[in-house]
Design brief:
Elements lengths: L4 H16 L3 H46 L1 H23 L17 H7 L4 H14 L5 H29 L7 H17 L1 H6 L6
Helix pairs in contact: 1-6, 2-3, 2-4, 2-5, 2-6, 2-7, 3-7
Length: 206
């Protein structure tokens, strides 16, 4: 188990701050809350938290070492992730106004899509690697990795949920189609800006 109460407290604080601060996940959840409301965005939020927990577990159990042994694998992941993030940004930017969703044709990002997105999210990699390298004692390592992954999931879910609720609260202020369009374009631009560390900052695996 984690070595001390102080270490556990420090990790929970790290998990909370890194989960609730802006990033690709929270930008998309904010947009989802505005466009679809809380209920329809729940699978998206669950996919983020559970998908990220699996990612932390995988990194802790050796996936990071695989990327260090074969850096081209991470390069493929990096640029594939950039392409997928641009696609998501385009989908957000071209979303219609809320009033046009009466047919049910527009759908929020689902559980599996959100879970898969964690593997191409640059902030998620920083969070996962930071959790394993900084807060996981060597003694009882495997058990500690499992505890870290579980705790991160528990802290992450309510943290990202706040962004969904904030977006839902903005729905009444964004009833006009032009206001929703401007909001969605702004969210899409923030996603594109978030590509900077993914593409232009040297990774720890190269």
């Amino acid at each position: 188990m984690l070595a001390s109460f102080d270490l556990l407290s420090a990790f929970v604080l790290f998990a909370f701050v890194s989960s609730i601060t802006p990033g690709p996940n929270n930008t998309m959840l904010l947009a989802s809350g505005v466009n679809f409301g809380v209920r329809r965005s729940v699978p998206h939020a669950l996919g983020i938290s559970l998908g990220f927990g699996v990612m932390v577990l995988a990194v802790g159990l050796g996936l990071g070492e695989v990327f260090k042994m074969w850096p081209p694998l991470y390069t493929v992941l990096r640029y594939g992730g950039a392409a997928y993030l641009l696609y998501l940004a385009w989908k957000i930017a071209t979303s219609g106004p809320m009033s046009s969703d009466t047919t049910g044709k527009r759908k929020p990002l689902g559980f599996w899509g959100a879970a898969a997105f964690q593997w191409v999210n640059p902030k998620a990699w920083v969070m996962a690697v930071g959790a394993i390298t900084t807060y996981t004692p060597a003694q009882g390592y495997v058990v500690n990795v499992i505890v870290i992954a579980a705790l991160f999931t528990l802290v992450n879910l309510p943290s990202v949920g706040i962004w969904v609720m904030f977006g839902s609260a903005l729905r009444n202020l964004l009833r006009k189609p032009r206001a929703v369009l401007l909001f969605n374009v702004a969210m899409a631009l923030l996603l594109v800006i978030s590509l900077y560390p993914l593409l232009f900052v040297e990774s720890s695996f190269s």
